[in-house]
Amino acid sequence: MKQLVNLERFSLAGHIISLAFGLAGLLIVLPHPELIASLSTFGQTAFVWSMAGGGVVYILLGAAAVALYANRTLGRWHLLTFMVPSVLLSLSSELLGTSTGFPFGEYGYLSGLGYKVAGLVPFTIPLSWFYMGFVSYLIARAGLKVDERRNTKWNWLLQIGAIAIGAMLLTSWDFALDPAMSQTAYPFWHYGKVGAFFGTPFRNFAGWIATGVVFMTVAALMWKKAPISLTRKQLTLPLVVYISNILFGAVLTIWGAGIWIPVALSIVLGVVPAVVLVRMASSIPAATTLEQLENVAVQSQKTQVAVASIGVIPK
């Protein structure tokens, strides 16, 4: 177990470092070829390799960190019943989108994100849907305390609310990410027609919400009979992953494209609600709280019995 925890931490650290390294390469080194020319032959080769595979590495490490975290905190069932639907459904949605234009609009992927499935969608894209979708949904579910209120009359509303908020958090990531990946000097994808939202078609965000809602709904149905309870402290990794990925897109969008409004939307509709939801989560797991209450009740009964016994003992 300790080795898996260390691997989880290594993956998270590597994910964040890869994001930072990618920013430095895209915003500082590539625009200044003289910096590359000043490197040794080995340094130039290493930089070329890192730029070619950097996008793949940060996504793989992010997916690994979240998968290890999910397996450790929730168990294999919760991990697989989210990961498999999210990967398969997002890949299907992306393949449909890149071949027909539905539901995201006409677009296509360039190089830099790894091998393309069917020559259309990089294999890393569904993995990014998985790990960002997972942290978004988990934060929403924990903040609304869906599983702690599962026996209440209105729990179905909380279930719907968690899916809706989770999809909103996921889509808020794209507000900052899309201009960074399509409108900067070194894009990773392009649109057939320049959209009205800083180059992005509005229907793209509708496609994001719809895709997120579908696989989060599948997960909600699969998780229905296996409740979970996470504390604020246990939500640290999901929140760090969420915010660090939004920051990556935000810095690229502001520095590389000089655009602020999408970043502001990501912060207002993504970062702020995510932080608030984590603060709303329980400070103590529901199961632990129940056990503690039961223990207190048992101890209280034992004390009352002991006191009563003392009272009837003759002097």
What's the quick description here?
73% of the residues lie in helices and 3% in strands.
Key traits:
single chain, 315 residues, mainly alpha, 2 domains, two-stranded antiparallel sheet, two-stranded antiparallel ribbon, 73% helix, globular
Descriptive notes:
The protein is mainly α. The chain folds into two domains: 70-283, no CATH class; 287-315. Helices cover 73% and strands 3% of the residues. The protein contains ten helices and four strands, in the order ααααβββααβαααα. The protein has helices at residues 2-29, 33-37, 41-73, 76-100, 124-144, 155-182, 202-223, 236-257, 261-280, 286-312, and strands at 107-109, 116-117, 121-122, 189-191. A two-stranded antiparallel sheet has the order 1-4. A two-stranded antiparallel ribbon has the order 2-3. The longest helix is centred in the N-terminal third of the chain and has 33 residues, at 41-73. The chain is globular and about 65 Å long.
Major sheet description: 2 strands, antiparallel
- Overall pLDDT level: 88
Low-confidence stretches: 287-297
Strand/helix succession? HHHHEEEHHEHHHH
Q: Give me the Rg, rounded.
A: 24 Å
- Percent of residues in helices: over 70%
> How are strands sequenced across the largest beta sheet?
1-4
The total beta strand count reads: 4
Write the layout of secondary structure elements.
Blueprint: H1 2-29, H2 33-37, H3 41-73, H4 76-100, E1 107-109, E2 116-117, E3 121-122, H5 124-144, H6 155-182, E4 189-191, H7 202-223, H8 236-257, H9 261-280, H10 286-312
Antiparallel strand pairs: 1-4, 2-3
Helix pairs in contact: 1-3, 1-8, 3-4, 3-5, 4-5, 4-7, 5-6, 5-8, 5-9, 6-7, 6-8, 6-9, 8-9
